[in-house]
Design goal:
Layout lengths: L3 E4 L2 H12 L4 E3 L6 E5 L3 H11 L8 E3 L10 E2 L3 H10 L4 E7 L5 H4 L4 E5 L4 H10 L3 E2 L14 H8 L5 E4 L10 E4 L6 E4 L5 H8 L3 E2 L23 E5 L4 H13 L4 E5 L1 H4 L7 E3 L4 H18 L2 E5 L8 H12 L1
Parallel strand pairs: 1-9, 4-7, 6-10, 11-12, 13-16, 14-15, 14-16
Antiparallel strand pairs: 2-3, 3-8, 4-8, 5-6, 6-7, 10-11
Helix pairs in contact: 1-5, 10-11
Length: about 325
């Protein structure tokens, strides 16, 4: 199968919709990462997604819809605060887990009774969803457990020969996957941290918990059960204050003839003058935006990425540390 990358235009969207309505799958941009999209009501499309990624069959998918789509067709909206969250943060990098009405096929929800729904804010993705006017299930468009792609070319590197079309919407600005929030109870629970933070949610709901995932729990969200986001090179993760440990490891790897790179924030980079660096940026938003891009760039130039952990875990840093530790820990 030939895989084409096409800029998002009315013509390429029309082509994409035709593929989707015939049970095919495509690569599409969102504001967070690129997704591997298929019609959520078609079991054959969902099976193609799992096969293309090599994704475990017990890892559920998120349904993506445009902002005018009536999500009550897909799920039961049981609490008043859900409407308030939608008004405040959607379209945007927020996914809500609600009781499913069974419209999305059982293969996509792994036989569960809940469905994760989100409304992307990416302009091109919104145009595609509007044109398709159906829920598209879409995990990240990469081989399972590899680093999530934030450019169309990165999608191509994992998916060429497996899908016919990748819509190129530029580099994703968010950089890490959406916050996944379980809203089936009176108090919402964060299943996967992201750019919509606990503090932002609490402004609407008053209270918000962070789920503690345990062995044997029913999986309601992607990104919680398996090791994810790994680059195709060796990695090591050091605490933010272990500067000596980072320098020692770097020097040892270089002495052994390996290409070592240190991946860290701009602030931490001040401790490593003259070293090979993969710079993540200064603010939390910059670091989130650059994390996967640096991991994917790093795997092309480094034998080992020595990552420096974040010094904090509040706000957007909760999502960053979650991804960083799964990628490099």
């Amino acid at each position: 199968m030939e895989t084409l990358i096409k800029e998002i235009t009315a013509q390429s969207i029309e082509e994409a919709v035709k593929i989707l309505k015939n049970g095919g799958i495509i690569g599409m941009p969102t504001e967070t990462v690129y997704g591997l999209a298929g019609a959520g009501t078609m079991p054959e499309a969902v099976k193609k997604i799992y096969a293309a990624k090599g994704r475990p069959s017990d890892n559920p998918l998120i349904a993506h819809v445009h902002e005018s789509y009536d999500i009550s067709r897909l799920v039961y909206i049981e609490h008043k605060y859900i409407r308030e969250l939608i008004k405040a943060y959607m379209p945007g990098p927020l996914t809500l887990v609600m009781k499913s009405r069974g419209v999305i096929c059982k293969e996509a929800v792994c036989g569960g009774d809940t469905l994760a729904v989100r409304m992307p804010s990416h302009k091109g993705c919104r145009a595609l969803l509007k044109a398709a006017d159906m829920p598209l299930v879409a995990p990240s468009a990469n081989i399972s457990k590899h680093t999530s792609p934030v450019t169309a070319q990165q999608v191509y590197e994992d998916m060429h020969g497996k899908i016919p079309l990748i819509l190129d919407g530029g580099k994703c600005t968010g950089g890490i996957e959406s916050t996944v929030l379980d809203v089936t109870e009176q108090v919402p629970r964060i299943l996967r941290a992201g750019l919509i933070t606990k503090e932002m949610i609490e402004k609407i709901t008053g209270a918000c918990e962070i789920a503690q995932h345990k062995e044997g729990d029913k999986v309601r969200s992607p990104g919680v059960k398996y090791r994810h986001y790994r680059p195709a090179c060796e990695t090591a993760l050091y605490a933010a204050d272990d500067i000596g440990g980072v320098l020692k490891r770097y020097d040892e790897e270089c002495a052994a003839g390996k290409r070592a790179y240190i991946m860290c924030s701009d602030e931490a980079a001040k401790n490593f003058p003259g070293k090979n660096l993969l710079p993540l940026g200064g603010t939390g938003e910059e670091i989130a935006s650059n994390l996967y891009d640096m991991l994917l760039k790093g795997e092309k130039v480094a034998d080992i990425i020595i990552a420096v952990d974040m010094p904090r875990e509040d706000g957007v840093y909760l999502g960053i540390t979650n991804r960083l530790r799964k990628a490099c820990g």
